[in-house]
Structure formats: C-alpha cells, structure tokens
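[SOLVED] Predicted holo structure with zinc ion

Edit: marking solved, answer below. Original request kept for reference. I posted the sequence and ligand SMILES and asked for the 3D complex as structure tokens.
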Amino acid sequence: MADPLPTFRYHPDPLASGSVIPSDAACACCEEARGYLYAGPVYAEEELASQLCPWCLADGAAAEAYDATFVDSEALDDTVPEDVVDEIVERTPGYHAWQGERWPSCCNDATAFLGAFGITELRAYDRSLEGAVMSYIVHDCGVSGGAALRLLESFTREEHGPTLYLFRCLHCEMPRFHHDRT
Ligand SMILES: [Zn+2]
Ligand SMILES: [Zn+2]
C-alpha cells in the first residue's frame, strides 16, 4: 500500500483533481517510488513533468533542488500574503489550465483548489454550485442574458474548453471560480 499523501492546505485532494496520479515510478528528486507522482505543471529549466513525488513538493525539496515552481506566481492576487504565495508556488500541486491559470483569493487568503469541471461534472459533484457559477459569470465576468446561459452550458473538461476551475475559501467557504477564456 502506498503511504498517505502529504497534506496540501491549498490543494486538499490532488488525487481527485488529477494533479497527483498513482505511479510505480521513482521520483527524480528523492529517487524513491512511493506510489504517486505529481502530474501538474512544473516551471523549471529541466523537463520534470510527472517525475516528482508529492512529498518532495510538500517539503519544498523539489522546488529547492530544481529551482522549480508549480503554480505561476502571476496567477495569484497582489493581496495574498507573501508566505502564502511561496507555499502555493513552491510547495503546492498546481493544475493544468488550457489558458493561463488563476488562483482566486478570498478573506485575505488564497483559496483552495478543488478541481476542473465541465457543467456535467459540476452538476454531478454539487448541483447547488450552479447558482454560484451563474453569479460568477454575471458579476465577475460581466456576461449576462443568453450569453451567460450559453457560457454556463459550454463548460467542458474536453481539450477545447472552456473548463471551469473550482476553488473554495478556507475561511468563509464561498466557492470561487476561474475559467478558460477563449
Ligand atoms: Zn520525491
Ligand atoms: Zn472567504
């Protein structure tokens, strides 16, 4: 049996989101095969896609060894405290977005990433989120009427997108969203 995964405050279930995958391969950093590898984006000089274990992400070893980051610091708001930015950029699994990633904030903190969704998957996951997505489309994206409905229905996990990315505030528990803009 594989060891339990390390805890990531800002990405609580990277196995569910697909950023961590089961693998028998050894980690390029610690050279141990612990049952899982990180499959999200790696920003580093070396090609390290799906070669690092989640433990080397969590304790900062991978960031240090390869001068690597896993989330684009530009994805975070200016209001996020610097230690939180460091934790997310250097020690948190990132996620693949078709276009530039964003990592929303709420209550003076970064939010936790829950996963990538199409509208079908979102309804299956939690139907009550649909209203919050609509409010995001109308108020945050400035899209209204028929165009808002069309955008809502167009969310897909397929490669062409647009995909909806779900986050939740660690304090007020409000859902937050980001989506690929075409
Ligand atoms: Zn490792
Ligand atoms: Zn909040």
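OP edit: The radius of gyration is 17 Å. Thanks to everyone who chimed in.
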